[in-house]
Amino acid sequence: MRFAHRPIRTALAVLGATLGGSHALAADGNDDGYSLSIGGYVRGWAAFNLQDQPETPSDDKWKPSMLRGSVLLDADARTGPVQWKGIVRVDHEAKTGYLADLERLRATNGTTGGDYKSITDNYNAAELREFWGEMKLGERTTVRAGKQQVVWGESDFFQAMDLVHGYDLSWRLFLEGENEEWRKPLWLISTKIDVPEAQGQIQAFVRPGGDRCKDIGNTYDIRGGRWFFNPYRGFDLSAITSYDCDHPEGDKSDWTGGIRWTGEAGPVSYSVAYVKTYAADPVANSSLAPWKKAPKGPLFDLVHPKIDVLGATVSGYSAAADTVFSAELAYTFGQPFNVGTGPALGLLGIKRKDTVRMMLRADKNLNFQNLLGTTRPSFSSVQLFDTWIPSHDRSDDLVRLFAYGSPTPKHNPLLTAFTVLNYASDTINPSFAVGIDKHGGGFFIPAVDLVLGDHWRAKVEAAVFWNKDHGDALFDPNDEVQLFGYFHKSSQLTFRLTRQF
Description:
Elements: H1 7-19, E1 25-27, E2 34-49, E3 64-79, E4 82-93, H2 97-108, E5 125-137, E6 141-148, H3 179-182, E7 186-195, E8 200-207, E9 241-243, E10 246-247, E11 250-251, E12 256-265, E13 268-278, E14 283-286, E15 300-303, E16 306-318, E17 323-338, E18 350-366, H4 369-372, E19 378-388, E20 399-401, E21 404-407, E22 414-420, E23 428-437, E24 442-452, E25 456-466, E26 492-500
Parallel strand pairs: 9-15
Antiparallel strand pairs: 1-2, 2-3, 2-26, 3-4, 4-5, 5-6, 6-7, 7-8, 8-12, 10-11, 12-13, 13-16, 14-15, 16-17, 17-18, 18-19, 19-22, 20-21, 22-23, 23-24, 24-25, 25-26
């Protein structure tokens, strides 16, 4: 649509109207059940490297890695029995000196022939985020059709059952807790059917296969930008590969879907679900060992094969511990992995393995009012994750992710915890999050959210990563080069300012 070709002009027009004092446009419903309200935000980010990046010749510490602006319009309307939702977002980035250095590296290594000539094209966008209509059919059934998000699962940091949608991780690979901003909506038909006799609800969706290729699975910054895996920043992988969304194991036109039952059994809430979807992380179909078909690209194609997932969640409050305990379990049939650790970089084929992903969580309000002077009890959470490959064998030579030679272990446990403190009637809200990988490495995220009047919000956040060994992705991968080896020297300091309207 033409809107996508003029993001800067559109953003500036909305920005001017907003900062000029506009409020949400609202038309009260009348007797015929018609109403309209429009809101949204204007948001800006500035992020700075906290460490020197090894790929560039200059010292990158304290250089701005991101100067980004976004405008989002959110409209709700009702026309008789139908409720409508529409969300449009425009994103634009300035080319910082650090990004310009990475762009010059792409020219030096001969990968300027990728999808985007300018490195900021990887981060600029103007898109229809959501557009759906919803109506009730009888007393129990609600049907929603259109571009939307379906969220199933209990975990926050690393999803087990929240697999319906992929995530756009190209511009911000870590942090930013609002998953609805990262999640990639899809064109779906979803329904909810209340079953009060059994204290539960049936939820189901179908995806007719009308989405774009880039809407499938997780999107990573493979074009040489600031969040490409160490040590590939400044190398545009799209110059030597492409996405294959017509692959027989991952055709975007195929129908997918899922069904879930949620209910209550005494003090316990639970759910069971089945989902047919696409593997979130792509695998490389290499010309060295083609899988089902020859790749179209000169070296390999990225494919998101379809998978089947059975899952269950349970959650309940313990009065004795004054804590909410939750658990989530997802069994994936045929999770795809690349083959070939070390210099092979996963280009020796693809194997499917059943996997089990589990999460245990405890949520509790801690009283820091006397100790730290908080306004109210502080919400805290501890979560333990693990991805287990029951039939894992060292001889399978599975790699953790395409284009990275790190081996996949049988278990991938990760322990995370966070606490949110509240001061000045919840207008000053510091938080602390930490994650520890059993194989080495982790993260620490101190942050503070500020409420500045009715419309302004600010956030300051530091992401500090450490790793036991980042190794050499090409020639010296080992069991300790795991998730946080990818984040070697990637620590960031980020400022965010939002004006809501």
